[in-house]
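Support request from a user on the community tier.

User writes: "When I paste my structure tokens into the form, the page sometimes reloads and wipes my input. The last time it worked, I copied everything first. Here is what I submitted, just in case something in the input itself triggers the reload:"
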């Protein structure tokens, strides 16, 4: 009797979505929650799933809302790289540098994808300052010098780490203006070519259509937070902060005005 030596059949697109992990990374105060919500809803809809249950990720530092407190945590990295992950796609939100073990996990795992959302650093400065005065969050923005230092150091390092990692495996960068002007364009732009192909295959396999998935995602999205009006942006204080942050603004793709 001849032994069966045939290779296992490749996973379908829908089966691949079952173990998919998507990390919606962002500079704080960049409209990332809006984009994260529609990314999560869209990918779950394409996969034929309801809202995600993240109980299994609680010990890895993930909140029920999908925020990863420390994505460099060994438990989180081990979890997303596990061969036994199922029930996805899982979509997580975080604000972090993509380096070290997290970079290795992202680059070497075929099931892990990511995006990066950025915003004009001058607008981040004022938005974070407003947030501190209202809630006490972002104490680094309690005064001008420490807020500027935070943006020049940690926020800039976040983008540099993403750019370096993207040379090995694509991490699309989405700008805040796209999120507020055209959420559909922002969603599509946040997917790498490989993920876009996988999504299209899954849509074909499920006999669904992108319009239905987008409609459901649009219906669930959270539009809290609007762009700072241009007139307000051109106040004397805004111009002063923009000048101090111009090197970082240029790095983020915002030329001097």
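"...and here is what came back when it finally went through:"
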């Amino acid at each position: 009797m001849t032994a069966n030596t045939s290779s296992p059949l490749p996973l379908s697109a829908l089966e691949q979505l079952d173990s998919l992990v998507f990390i919606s990374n962002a500079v704080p105060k960049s409209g990332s929650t809006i984009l994260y919500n529609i990314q999560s809803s869209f990918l779950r809809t394409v996969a034929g799933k309801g809202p995600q249950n993240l109980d299994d990720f609680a010990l890895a530092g993930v909140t029920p809302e999908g925020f990863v407190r420390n994505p460099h945590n060994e438990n989180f990295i081990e979890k997303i790289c596990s061969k036994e992950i199922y029930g996805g796609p899982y979509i997580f939100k975080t604000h972090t540098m993509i380096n070290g073990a997290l970079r290795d996990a992202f680059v070497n795992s075929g099931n892990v994808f990511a995006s990066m959302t950025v915003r004009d650093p001058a607008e981040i400065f004022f938005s974070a300052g407003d947030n501190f005065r209202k809630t006490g969050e972002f104490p680094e923005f309690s005064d001008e010098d420490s807020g500027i230092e935070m943006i020049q150091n940690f926020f800039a390092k976040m983008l540099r780490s993403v750019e370096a990692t993207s040379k090995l495996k694509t991490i699309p960068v989405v700008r805040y203006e796209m999120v507020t002007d055209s959420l559909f364009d922002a969603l599509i732009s946040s997917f790498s070519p490989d993920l876009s192909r996988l999504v299209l295959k899954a849509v074909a396999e499920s006999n669904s259509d992108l319009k239905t998935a987008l409609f459901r995602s649009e219906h669930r999205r959270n539009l809290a937070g609007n762009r700072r009006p241009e007139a307000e942006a051109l106040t004397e204080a805004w111009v002063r902060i923009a000048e101090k942050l111009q090197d970082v603004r240029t790095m983020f793709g915002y030329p001097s005005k």
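Agent notes: The reload is a front-end session timeout and is unrelated to the input. The chain is about 50% helix and 10% strand. The radius of gyration is 20 Å. Escalated to web team.
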